[in-house]
Write a structure and sequence with these properties.
Blueprint: H1 5-26, E1 32-48, E2 51-69, E3 72-78, H2 83-99, H3 131-146, E4 152-171, E5 176-194, E6 197-207, H4 216-229, E7 239-245, H5 247-260, H6 263-267, E8 288-290, E9 313-317, E10 320-321, H7 328-334, E11 348-350, H8 357-364, E12 367-374, E13 384-395, E14 398-411, H9 412-417, E15 421-422, E16 432-433, E17 437-445
Parallel strand pairs: 7-12, 11-16
Antiparallel strand pairs: 1-2, 1-4, 2-3, 4-5, 5-6, 7-17, 8-9, 8-11, 9-10, 12-13, 13-14, 14-17, 15-17
Helix pairs in contact: 1-2, 3-4
């Protein structure tokens, strides 16, 4: 998928012209407008037993416009960027706005908050590879899994994906900015069998830059190791015990915080953290930093989906909640200032406390490691937490055997406040980067 700088510049110019054209047309029938165009180009391949299962090239573009007129809002979208199609889309948004109810909180982001200058974040590194090379990488990852052990008897395949995107945003305040980004990933997923029992697992690598990917052999061998480690899983008796959330699932533990402090949850009064701003919600040794300008960061962005410039900030400092996550609308509803979180969070980083994973096991002594979670048993209103889990049982700081078909339960408020420590085994493939988390006790329901 070879692309030159000149081709990118030409594509970017065309998209910026489309946004400018839509904004110009919107002036006639609205008080304000915002337009976004996203173009994604790339290749996805998958193999199974080294045979090509799927090769997909894509080049997709979409334009979305929102207009505001007399406090009424209308939105429309199009995948056709011809002048005629853009005119129809703008008119559709204007027509829709006539039928919506007035909302005093609606409108584009405040001009003072917009990213009229966007920092360069080193996000754009398209890979120079063709379908044959992509297929080879997927097959090598899969083969490295299949050849690792004779107990690996089946495969769900290997995959390789490489895409780049161009995002353009403009609004009636005079902002018109764009940036390019890329993302590459490779994975393998296999099934192992022993004594009539089967287990599956996967491994993957992802990066903005092709050279940042782990090798296909690493992916395959890691996939095999993870899958084989699950064989011989047992159930546990019902009990209370310490729990380690491995780094890969610990990111989700903090992911529940995103929803709990989002502006929409707060103004709807549907969050269990409703009265927690400025109060301790995590241990005093824990700080959550947001770093939206991290070079090559998987969740880095110069501006959010409303064009608001992103800035580094502490979400939680020394355990104390510092901010809600606000869009223009939720900020106005709450009488606060937009924090640039339309579209999500931007690289949360949570530092480890000096222990590697082996050290965490010794710190716990006896208890449960959770490596996979199932189900959606988390209440955004109460914080009650109950999910299916699998992982490993630990005694005297050493893994004894895999476990499955258990349920772990607690309340997020208690789980967050009582964290014992966080490991240095930082998961970097997520928009939340943290290590494994040790909790002092959770309820475990087993056989």
């Amino acid at each position: 998928m070879r692309v030159t700088n000149q081709q990118i510049a030409e594509q970017r110019k065309l998209l910026e012209e489309a946004v400018a054209h839509a904004l110009e047309l919107a002036k006639a029938g609205s008080d304000a407008a915002e337009v976004a165009v996203n173009k994604t180009t790339g290749i996805s391949v998958s193999t199974r037993f080294s045979e090509v299962e799927n090769v997909e090239f894509n080049s997709d573009v979409a334009l979305g416009i929102t207009v505001y007129h007399q406090q009424r809002k209308g939105s429309a979208s199009s995948t056709d960027l011809s002048p005629e199609a853009i005119a129809r889309t703008v008119q559709a948004a204007i027509d829709i706005a006539r039928y919506t109810s007035p909302d005093p909180y609606a409108g584009p982001a405040d001009k003072a908050l917009l990213a009229f200058e966007a920092p360069e974040l080193d996000l754009f590194h398209p890979a120079d590879l063709d379908a044959d090379k992509a297929i080879e990488l997927a097959a090598r990852a899969e083969q490295a899994s299949l050849q690792a052990d004779e107990r690996i008897t089946n495969t769900e395949g290997g995959s390789f994906n490489s895409h780049y995107g161009i995002r353009v945003f403009g609004n009636s305040h005079g902002m018109l900015q764009s940036y390019c980004s890329s993302r590459h990933s490779m994975s393998s997923c296999v099934i192992a069998e022993q004594d009539g029992n089967m287990e599956r697992d996967y491994a993957y690598t992802v990066s903005r830059h092709f050279d940042g990917l782990k090798s296909p052999e690493w992916v395959g061998q890691e996939c095999a190791r993870r899958t084989l480690s699950r064989l011989g899983a047992r159930k546990l008796p019902t009990m209370k015990a310490p729990v380690i959330f491995s780094a890969e699932v610990a990111t989700g533990l903090f992911g529940h915080l995103v929803g709990a402090i989002s502006g929409s949850s707060i103004y709807r009064k549907s969050s269990f953290l409703l009265d927690s701003l400025g109060k301790p919600i995590l241990p005093s040794w824990l700080t959550i930093e947001e770093q939206p300008h991290l070079l090559r960061g998987l969740a880095s962005t110069p501006f959010d989906s409303e064009g608001v410039r992103t800035i580094p900030r502490d979400i939680v400092k020394a355990g104390v909640l510092q901010t809600w996550l606000l869009t223009s609308y939720s900020a106005r509803k709450l009488g606060m200032v937009n924090t640039g979180h339309a579209g999500g969070i931007h690289n949360w980083r949570i530092a480890g406390q000096g222990l590697d994973f082996t050290g965490l096991l010794r710190e716990m002594g006896t208890g449960l490691i959770v490596t996979e979670l199932m189900g959606q048993g988390v209440s955004a209103v109460t914080g009650d937490y109950s999910r299916g889990a699998s992982g490993f049982w630990v005694e005297n700081g050493e893994i004894q055997y895999p476990v499955s078909e258990i349920t772990i339960a607690g309340n997020l408020k208690d789980m967050w406040a009582n964290m014992v420590t966080i490991g240095d085994d930082i998961e970097t493939r997520s928009n939340i980067q943290c290590g494994s988390v040790l909790l002092p006790e959770m309820s475990i329901a087993g056989q």
